[in-house]
Write a structure and sequence with these properties.
Length: 118
């Protein structure tokens, strides 16, 4: 059974940093794309960033470019999201997901709350 477990969320002041982790279990995802989405209250879930299995392929939504960095450790079946210079607009529940390729996701975690205070 595939499981994705996010961690690292919390409350931080604007300008601060957080590092989210997502540990996958149940199978090996070394050749899968891994990604992060987020959902703010009253809004649709939106794409944040993704990384292909070749490590060098990363993609970000414009609002987080230059502030967020996605990375992965295939040996640990884990994807990370380093978030710097956080803004109140980054407040959301953050979800990790994996799938056979970027844009095609099959498994989702339960989410971790990130709250940025002004």
């Amino acid at each position: 059974q595939v499981q994705l477990v996010e961690s690292g969320g919390g409350l931080v002041q604007a300008g601060g940093s957080l590092r989210l982790s997502c540990a996958a279990s149940g199978r090996t995802f070394s050749t899968y794309a891994m990604a992060w989405f987020r959902q703010a209250p009253g809004k649709d879930r939106e794409f944040v960033g993704a990384i292909g299995w070749l490590y060098t392929s990363t993609h970000y939504t414009d609002p987080v470019k230059g502030r967020f960095t996605i990375s992965r450790d295939n040996a640990k079946n884990t994807v990370y999201l380093q978030m710097n210079t956080l803004e109140p607009g980054d407040t959301a529940v953050y979800y990790c997901t994996v799938g056979p390729r970027i844009g095609e996701y099959a498994y989702w975690g339960q989410g971790t709350q990130v709250t940025v205070s002004s």
